[in-house]
Amino acid sequence: MSFLRLRGRLRSLHKEGKMGYSFSATCEVVIPADKVQDCLAAINLLFKKQSRYSWVEAPKEEHTDLVAALDNWRYEAHVQENGDVEISYFQGEKLGDDKVLFQAIAPFADGVIYCVGEHGEDHWKWAFADGELKECWGRIVYDDWEGV
After folding, report:
1. CB contact at 8 A, 17 and 96
2. Residue 87 forms beta bridges with which residues?
3. DSSP string computed for 55-87
4. Is the pTM of this model over 0.90?
5. Per-residue pLDDT tens for 82-134?
6. Cβ-proximal residues to 99 (8 Å cutoff; 6+ apart), any chain
């Protein structure tokens, strides 16, 4: 499924209020200790701009802990011994407004998130580079060999 077709499908499901698009994600993302508070502020700011995001419960008060804020977006994170916060994996089932979250935290994060869409048909990654979120669509290619 092409990106444009996927985006169109997601928009129509969203408008109809139907269940979202299933996906899984492998995360290799770190927020350095010196950027944790700015990252948390960026997440809290999202709820000042908009009160509702898909699959995310609006907090009654601002988050004071980055790990808890990421958990609210369905991402498990851990504080490392040096104070860095590592996002380890996606604990939800459906793609929501995840990209909005990652665009907001891009200036503070380093790493990549590898995503596989519903039924394994779509592959893409979100990479944090130069303070921005970059999205790259992929495909699986198998080398041929004789007899197969």
Report:
1. no
2. 29, 77
3. TBPPPSS--S-HHHHHHHTTEEEEE-TTS-EEE
4. no
5. 999 999 999 999 998 999 999 999 999 999 999 998 888 889 999 999 999 99
6. 126, 133, 135
